[in-house]
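Board notes, transcribed. Complex of a protein with zinc ion.
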Amino acid sequence: MPLVRALACLLLLLNGCRSSGPKQGFVPYQSVTLSIQQVSPHVYRHTSFLQTNSFGRVACNGMIVADAGEAVVFDTPATDSATVELLNYTERVLKVRVKAVVPTHFHADCVAGLAEFHRRRIRSYALISTIALAAGSQAVVPQRGFAERLALRVG
Ligand SMILES: [Zn+2]
C-alpha cells in the first residue's frame, strides 16, 4: 500500500511539472511571413521578417503574454500583413483579446504593424523617447507614453 501511495504522489508531482510547461495541445503557427512559438505557459514568441537593403531578409522577434482571455503584445510584426496574421491568430486560436501593444523601440521591426493594432482599437504604449523618435521618422506613432515604468495587467 505505501508503494501505491508513493506512486500516486509521484504521478501528481509529474503531472504538476507537466502543467507548468508549455500549454498542452499548442500548435505552433507557421507561414511564409510569420511564426509563433510558445516558450512558457503564458509567453509566446512571434517572428516576422523585414526586408532591408543592408542585411537582406532579417528575422524580427516579439512577444505575446497571454492569460485568462487577455494578452499584451511586445513589438508589432515587421509588416502589416504579418500583423493581421498575428492578431487573427491571437483572437481565433489563442482565444485572447489583445488589450495593448508595447513597441520597445521606434524601428520598423517594432512599429510597422501599429496601424493594424490601432484599426482594431488596441492601445499602444511606448517610452516617451520612443514616441519622439517615431514622430521624427514618418513611422506610425504609439499613442500613450510613459517615462520609466508601465504596469499592464493581463488576465
Ligand atoms: Zn530595430
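The CA atoms of residues 82 and 117 lie 12 Å apart. Strands lie at 29-30, 34-40, 43-52, 56-67, 70-74, 97-102, 123-127, 144-146.
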